[in-house]
Design goal:
Elements (H helix, E strand, L loop, with lengths): L4 E4 L1 H8 L3 H7 L3 E5 H8 L6 H12 L2 E3 L3 H13 L4 H12 L4 E3 L12 E3 L1
Parallel strand pairs: 1-2, 1-4, 2-3, 4-5
Length: about 120
């Protein structure tokens, strides 16, 4: 993976789409990857305006989705055994580790996973 590839956590995407200019600038110029968990979380938001859902789907279509393959599953199991972290977050962390991508997030809880390369917003 090259240095412009990053894995983006759900909370950062919501902030960016919500209009946070600092987040938008942070993500600009990067190739964006998201976990399948992030995709599910984003599409599960109860949108009140059809335009918001279209905007979210458009954003997702411009990202590479990391599915639950064997390597991600194994890293998830290891993370859950070593750390007190929720399963969805463990899968996102495992995706970052397995694919050797830095995780861009606003969630300090990921700092519980020492082998994770985190960029905190």
């Amino acid at each position: 993976m090259n240095g412009n590839n990053i894995l983006v956590d759900t909370n950062l995407i919501i902030l960016g789409i919500g209009g946070n200019q600092l987040v938008r600038e942070l993500l600009e110029g990067h190739t964006l990857f998201i976990s399948v968990i992030t995709e599910i979380e984003l599409l599960s938001i109860p949108f009140t305006v059809t335009q918001d859902e279209k905007l979210m789907r458009n954003f997702i279509s411009n990202c590479f989705i990391i599915d639950l393959d064997g390597e991600v599953k194994q890293h998830t199991i290891t993370i859950r055994k070593k750390n007190k972290i929720k399963l969805p977050d463990a899968i996102i962390a495992a995706s970052s580790i397995a694919k050797k991508l830095p995780l861009f997030t606003a969630d300090k809880g990921f700092s519980k996973v020492p082998e994770l390369n985190i960029v905190l917003f």
